[in-house]
TrEMBL record:
Entry protein name: Methyltransferase domain-containing protein
GO molecular function: methyltransferase activity
Organism: Ceratopteris richardii (Triangle waterfern)
Lineage: Eukaryota, Viridiplantae, Streptophyta, Embryophyta, Tracheophyta
Keyword Mitochondrion: no
GO biological process, one term: methylation
PANTHER family reported for this sequence: EEF1A LYSINE METHYLTRANSFERASE 4, SAM-DEPENDENT METHYLTRANSFERASE SUPERFAMILY PROTEIN
Family, similarity comment: Belongs to the methyltransferase superfamily.
Swiss-Prot/TrEMBL keywords: Methyltransferase, Transferase
Signal sequence region: none
Length: 119
């Protein structure tokens, strides 16, 4: 399904826009799916590296990376709906070591258990 962009692109900044979209959209890749980038990711990301996926939405990127042995992935999104669905997908796929967090990348500083990130 091809989705038309919102009439006002500033809606992309609103969690409510994404909550509504992710409530009725199961899967969407903004660019291409993982198979198009796999060779580059595996060349530059080691299994022990920690990865931060910004704006995970309902992409399969982190799950596909996990199945390739990259297991320390934090998925973030502005939408609580997307984060809840991603956490459910991660659990259903047995992606132990991955987590999903509500975060606005414009204002969030990561600290605590995420000290440094490799990608």
């Amino acid at each position: 399904m091809t989705r038309e962009p919102p009439a006002d692109v500033s809606l992309y900044q609103q969690p409510s826009y994404w909550d509504k979209r992710f409530s009725d959209e199961e899967h969407y890749e903004w660019c291409k799916d993982y198979s198009h980038f796999r060779h580059l990711i595996l060349q530059h990301v080691q299994p022990q590296d920690r990865v931060l996926e910004l704006g995970c939405g309902n992409s399969r990127l982190s799950i596909d990376m996990f199945h390739d042995g990259i297991t320390q992935i934090t998925c973030t999104d502005l939408s609580p709906v997307a984060v809840k669905q991603m956490q459910q997908r991660l659990e259903a796929e047995n992606c132990t070591g991955c987590c999903s967090v509500v975060s606005d990348v414009k204002t969030t500083v990561y600290a605590g258990s995420i000290v440094s990130l490799d990608l």
